[in-house]
Every structure is written in structure tokens, then in C-alpha cells.
């Protein structure tokens, strides 16, 4: 069934004639007449009684007009509903990131995005192992890296650089004193991020481009930042972590920043995504939200 046929018939009835309907719709009268005739032939019955001066609905025409009018009203309502919500985001977004980013950065901003987009469903894969974005069906990934990421065919967008600072217990900070230098940490117990065997050296950068290398005695290797913070607060050693991860602990007096004139690196945080074209609207909108909001979250705190 061609809804155009019903559309033209309803207009003819409501405008009480073919000429008036043609003027209202801005189309030739002959076109409307053909549409109505085709409709009658399709249905196998006459819908209109008409002569040169009068027009009226047959019994079948009255029944058809009544139902056709309701159907067209439903179509109009459907179109309005779509137009009204065409800017409302809807669908699923799958994001991959490290556990630390999920706990200490995303947790502060995700509720706001989801509250403002009630039809968006977020699937968050928090893991310290890199995921296969294509194989695992991941839309976006947040990655921290000190060097350029390998060319994977994905689009890479810089979010921010994140300062890593040295933290320890307030007791250790007091023992070292305000004038402590990198050499004062040589041989100190250290807590390393990452459970696999690796380096036991902090490469520090100071003011004016100065650098220092500090060898520490590994007490624990762990890929969970919460456990490392707890161990540092308990006086088990010094840990190098992103400043934003320890900001609340420093403010609460549970941790202190050591060597405040030195940093332990500035890893870059990037957002990986698929080709620009073809991404669903909710994915593009979430990517823009992350690039806008994460820099402020990841560059807070760390002094003290």
C-alpha cells in the first residue's frame, strides 16, 4: 500500500474537492486525481461519488477515510518523535583503560556523562593488559605511554601529559627533610608499579632540565595503585605514581610528596579510536567528552 494514495485522499476530503486540495498541496489537480483513481483500482471499490459540482464519500470511502486519517496522524506523530530526539544520544559505547585510570579519573566524570545521556550504555573494560580493540569490539581506548605508540591503523588523539611524582609516608618526608635531594633516596625501599620484573631506577627531571637517576631497593611490585598507595602510607617505601592518583591522600595527610622540585616523568595519555567516519554518534560524543574533561582531572594535585 502506497501511503501517498491515502495522503491525497484525506486532503481531498478535508478540502472538499480536488481543486482545493491541489492548491493547498501546490501540485497539479490531475496528479491528485490519478492518485485517488489508482487507490480505488487497488482496493477494487469506489471511494468517492463525484460529478462536476459535488463530491461525497461512499460507505467504503467513509470507512477508508476514517482509518487512513488515523494512520497518517500516527505517521506524523512518529516523525515528530524522531525529530524531537534526533539529537539525543542512544546506544552502547565500549571503552578500555587501565584500572588506575578507571578508579582515579573516570570515576569522577563518568556519572556526569551518563546522567546527561540516559540512553547511552557504557561498557568499561578496566584492565592493565592492553586489549585488542578490533578483536574485542572496543570503540575507544585510553592509553598511557612514554614513547610513541606503534602505528596500528587507529586514530590517536593526545589528551594530556600526566606528571608522576614521588610519594611516601609523612614520617619519611619528615625524616628526609625539606632540603632532601635525589641522592638521599639512593638505596631507599621502593614500591614499583607493575608486577613483572623490571627496572629499579627512578629517572628524575628537575628544574632547568637537570636530571638524576636514583637506584632503589624493591620491596614490592604490584599493578594495583591502591595497594601501592597503602604500602607507601604505611611506611614500606617510596612510590612513583601519577599526581592525580595521590591527590586525595596528600590532602588528607596520608601521603606526602617527596622531592617536590623533581618529577619522575611525564607519560602522555592518548585516546585511541577507529576511523573518523562511520563511528556512531554516541562514540564520537563520548570521545569528545573524554578529551575535554580528562585533562583537568589528570593534572590536579600532587603537591605537599
TrEMBL record:
Keywords: DNA-binding, Transcription, Transcription regulation. This is DNA-binding transcriptional regulator, LysR family. GO terms for molecular function: DNA-binding transcription factor activity; sequence-specific DNA binding. The keyword Endoplasmic reticulum does not apply. Residues 1-58 form the HTH lysR-type domain. Belongs to the LysR transcriptional regulatory family. The keyword Transcription applies. GO terms for biological process: DNA-templated transcription. Coiled coil: none annotated. It holds the Pfam family LysR_substrate. InterPro entries: LysR-type_TF_proteobact-type (IPR058163), LysR_HTH_N (IPR000847), LysR_subst-bd (IPR005119), WH-like_DNA-bd_sf (IPR036388), WH_DNA-bd_sf (IPR036390).
Amino acid at each position: 500500500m502506497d501511503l501517498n494514495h491515502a495522503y491525497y485522499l484525506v486532503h481531498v476530503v478535508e478540502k472538499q474537492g480536488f481543486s482545493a486540495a491541489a492548491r493547498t498541496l501546490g501540485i497539479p489537480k490531475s496528479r491528485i486525481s490519478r492518485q485517488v483513481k489508482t487507490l480505488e483500482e487497488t482496493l477494487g471499490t469506489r471511494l468517492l461519488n463525484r460529478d462536476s459540482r459535488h463530491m461525497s464519500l461512499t460507505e467504503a470511502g467513509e470507512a477508508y477515510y476514517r482509518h487512513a486519517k488515523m494512520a497518517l496522524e500516527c505517521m506524523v506523530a512518529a516523525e515528530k518523535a524522531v525529530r524531537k530526539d534526533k539529537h539525543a544520544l542512544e546506544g552502547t559505547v565500549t571503552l578500555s583503560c587501565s584500572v588506575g585510570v578507571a578508579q582515579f579519573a573516570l570515576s569522577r566524570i563518568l556519572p556526569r556523562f551518563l546522567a546527561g545521556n540516559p540512553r547511552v550504555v557504557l561498557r568499561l573494560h578496566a584492565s592493565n593488559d592492553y586489549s585488542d580493540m578490533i578483536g574485542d569490539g572496543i570503540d575507544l581506548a585510553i592509553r598511557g605511554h612514554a614513547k610513541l605508540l606503534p602505528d596500528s591503523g587507529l586514530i590517536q588523539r593526545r589528551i594530556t601529559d600526566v606528571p608522576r611524582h614521588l610519594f611516601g609516608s609523612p614520617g619519611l618526608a619528615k625524616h628526609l627533610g625539606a632540603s632532601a635531594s635525589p641522592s638521599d633516596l639512593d638505596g631507599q625501599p621502593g614500591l614499583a608499579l607493575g608486577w613483572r620484573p623490571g627496572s629499579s631506577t627512578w629517572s628524575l627531571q628537575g628544574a632547568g632540565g637537570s636530571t638524576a637517576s636514583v637506584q632503589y631497593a624493591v620491596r614490592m611490585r604490584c599493578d594495583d595503585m591502591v595497594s601501592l598507595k597503602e604500602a607507601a602510607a604505611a611506611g614500606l617505601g617510596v612510590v612513583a605514581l601519577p599526581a592525580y592518583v595521590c591527590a586525595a591522600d596528600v590532602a588528607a595527610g596520608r601521603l606526602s610528596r617527596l622531592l617536590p622540585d623533581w618529577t619522575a616523568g611525564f607519560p602522555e595519555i592518548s585516546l585511541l579510536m577507529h576511523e573518523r567516519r562511520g563511528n556512531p554518534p554516541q562514540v564520537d560524543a563520548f570521545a569528545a567528552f573524554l578529551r575535554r574533561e580528562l585533562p583537568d582531572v589528570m593534572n590536579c594535585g600532587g603537591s605537599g
